[in-house]
């Protein structure tokens, strides 16, 4: 190969290397720009995340389980607004309401930290404690009633004369989260050694050695099904038993009360287990003081509510422990 040819090959090789070098520099510059863009976005988003976390920490979220959220919203908001207005000294600036269709959905909210405080029945509170670690921290009365119990009733001319006669018969409950019309009677039936089975309808017969149960959805339906002989026994709270809208007076002449259970707290306030102790302590102070505050009394009267809050006493703790144990047994044996 002559000198001219060698020079041509060398020149081509140099040009190729320069081209590849320029490509490498371009890739390097692009990578650096991309890296700087990613770092910049991360730095820009970090304050936003911190701001959102800070905003969340300034809000108190009150949860309610309700099949009629629209009816519950205004009184719930009035209570929450009252409380939030008195919690600025612990950093609470706003209140939010989170409704759930049932206790299982509310338990999910509690586990994920989406709700701070829930107003519940005794059975609902124990279910939230069992499923989400919620902590009972106050007792609340509802319309002046601090404790209530279950009433079992049957037709006077029926075959069932006591709840011990329930084997091979049917009982109507309200729904699967009702304290007085599901949890308590189920606990007591199981405690008597009688197995239970859910029926598809009140027309389905139970097996001879078990107690068949159905959900009637409302107290009025429970009373009607017993009166018509579709089921043998109904279970409602003593408050519903004395309410003619739920159990009509003209039914009662045909009914007999078989048993009344022990009492349990009417309402229980629970908080999520990891709620800031400072916020929890201030929330307790505000709620306990409501019964002596004329502004709170007027507020609750405006929504036809009568609600007072109390610390749990030894009887309350004992009754809730019994209820919690019974709900665990129900979960194992019939659900």
TrEMBL record:
Pfam family membership, one: Phosphonate-bd
Keywords: Membrane, Transmembrane, Transmembrane helix
Keyword Transmembrane annotated: yes
Segments traversing the membrane: 27-48
Gene3D superfamilies given in the database record: Periplasmic binding protein-like II
SUPFAM superfamilies cross-referenced by the UniProt entry: Periplasmic binding protein-like II
Record protein name field: Phosphonate transport system substrate-binding protein
Species name: Dokdonella immobilis
């Amino acid at each position: 190969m002559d000198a001219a040819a060698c020079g041509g090959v060398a020149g081509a090789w140099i040009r190729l290397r320069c081209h590849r070098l320029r490509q490498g520099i371009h890739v390097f510059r692009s990578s650096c720009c991309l890296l700087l863009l990613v770092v910049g976005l991360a730095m820009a988003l970090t304050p936003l995340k911190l701001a959102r976390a800070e905003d969340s920490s300034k809000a108190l979220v009150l949860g309610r389980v309700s099949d009629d959220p629209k009816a519950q919203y205004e009184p719930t908001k009035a209570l929450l607004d009252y409380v939030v207005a008195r919690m600025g000294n612990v950093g609470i600036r706003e209140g939010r309401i989170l409704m759930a269709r049932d206790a299982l959905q509310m338990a999910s909210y509690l586990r994920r930290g989406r709700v701070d405080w829930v107003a519940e029945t005794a059975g609902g509170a124990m279910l939230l404690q069992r499923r989400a670690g919620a902590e009972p921290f106050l007792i609340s009365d509802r319309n002046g009633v601090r404790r209530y119990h279950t009433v079992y009733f049957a037709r006077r001319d029926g075959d069932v004369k006591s709840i011990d006669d329930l084997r091979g018969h049917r009982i109507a409950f309200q729904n699967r989260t009702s304290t007085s019309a599901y949890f308590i009677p189920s606990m007591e039936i199981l405690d008597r050694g009688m197995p239970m089975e859910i029926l598809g309808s009140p027309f389905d017969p139970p097996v001879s050695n078990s107690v068949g149960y159905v959900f009637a959805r409302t107290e009025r339906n429970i009373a009607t099904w017993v009166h018509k002989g579709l089921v043998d026994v109904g279970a409602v709270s003593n408050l519903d038993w004395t309410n003619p809208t739920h159990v009509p007076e003209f039914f009662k002449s045909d009914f007999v009360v078989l048993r009344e259970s022990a009492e349990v707290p009417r309402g229980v306030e629970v908080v999520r287990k990891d709620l800031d102790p400072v916020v929890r302590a201030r929330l307790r102070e505000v709620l306990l003081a409501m019964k002596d505050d004329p502004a709170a009394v007027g507020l609750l009267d405006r929504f036809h509510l009568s609600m007072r809050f109390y610390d749990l006493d030894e009887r309350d703790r004992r009754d809730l422990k019994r209820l919690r144990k019974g709900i665990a047994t129900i979960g194992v044996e019939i659900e």
